[in-house]
């Protein structure tokens, strides 16, 4: 994106289409209700994110 990376954290509760978002950010983190401390540990590099979402998100919408 630029000199400094853009990190976007989305708080979601249902599936969403990612195509409109991906060009605006270098890093996309999806949160389903974790504490701020956990997100900061991921962003700072103290912890590597892992796990599965309770739903699937598509890059593009297919009808």
Secondary-structure element string: EHEH
Which of globular, elongated, flat, extended, rod-shaped describes the shape?
flat
Structural class: alpha+beta
Question: CA-to-CA gap between the ends?
Answer: 31 Å
Low-pLDDT residue spans? none
Rounded mean pLDDT score: 80
DSSP E strands, number: 2
Strand content: 15-25%
> Radius of gyration, Cα only, in angstroms?
13 Å
Order the strands across the largest sheet as they lie in space.
1-2
Helix share bin:
10-25%
Report the major sheet: 2 strands, parallel
Count of alpha/pi helices: 2
Total number of domains:
1
Provide an overview of this structure.
The protein has 63 residues and is of the alpha+beta class. It has one domain (1-63). The protein contains 2 helices and 2 strands; from the N terminus they run βαβα. The protein has a two-stranded parallel ribbon with strand order 1-2. Helix 1 (19-22) links the parallel strand 1 and strand 2 (27-31). The termini are far apart.
Put the structure in a nutshell.
With 63 residues, the protein is an alpha+beta fold.
């Amino acid at each position: 994106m630029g000199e400094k990376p853009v990190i976007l954290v989305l708080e979601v509760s249902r599936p969403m289409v990612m195509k409109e978002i991906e060009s605006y950010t270098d890093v996309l983190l999806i949160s389903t209700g974790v504490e701020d401390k956990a997100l900061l540990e991921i962003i700072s590099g103290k912890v590597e994110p892992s796990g599965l979402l309770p739903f699937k998100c598509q890059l593009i919408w297919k009808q």
